[in-house]
Amino acid sequence: MAISDVLLPEFDQEMAGARRTLERVPSDKFEWTPHDKSATRIGLAGHLANLLAWTNLTIAQDSLDTAPGGEPMPSPPVLASVDELLTTFDGHVAEARAAIAGASDEALMQP
């Protein structure tokens, strides 16, 4: 059995739970922060929605240049609504799932 075959059921379960969390973000409280030094609720939710964008990079590359060509990597877009959160999250989930499903055991075992 391929490693990806073992990973994907858990991935699907975790992504379903993460999506339920994003669905419940109250749009009237986007600016709330859990702590004075914390990001806003919409900022934290946006981080969750965009986090999976790293999956393809992690699987496809052996290293990461955080300043390609001397320029910093672009920041993810600021998301302004629950619909934007869900659309972004769903797109990244589909891309991440495809990357995991298409990865060989050898690629997944790389340090």
In short:
The protein has 111 residues and is mainly alpha-helical. It has one domain (1-23, 37-59, 77-111).
Question: How would you explain this protein's 3D organization?
Answer:
By secondary structure, the chain is mainly alpha-helical. It has one domain. The protein has 5 helices and no strands. Helix 1 packs antiparallel against helix 4 (82-102), helix 2 runs parallel beside helix 4 and helix 3 (54-60) packs parallel to helix 4.
What's the structural blueprint in terms of helices and strands?
Layout: H1 3-23, H2 41-51, H3 54-60, H4 82-102, H5 105-108
Helix pairs in contact: 1-4, 2-4, 3-4
Average predicted local confidence, pLDDT: 94
The run of helices and strands is HHHHH
Helix coverage percent? 55-70%
Shape: globular
- Count of alpha/pi helices: 5
Q: What is the C-alpha radius of gyration, as a whole number of Å?
A: 16 Å
End-to-end span in angstroms?
21 Å
**How many E-type strands?**
0
Per DSSP, what share of the residues sits in E-state strands of 2 or more residues? under 5%
What is the total number of structural domains? 1
Biggest β-sheet description: none
In the predicted model, the low-confidence regions spanning at least 5 consecutive residues are none
Instruction: Name the structural class.
Output: mainly alpha
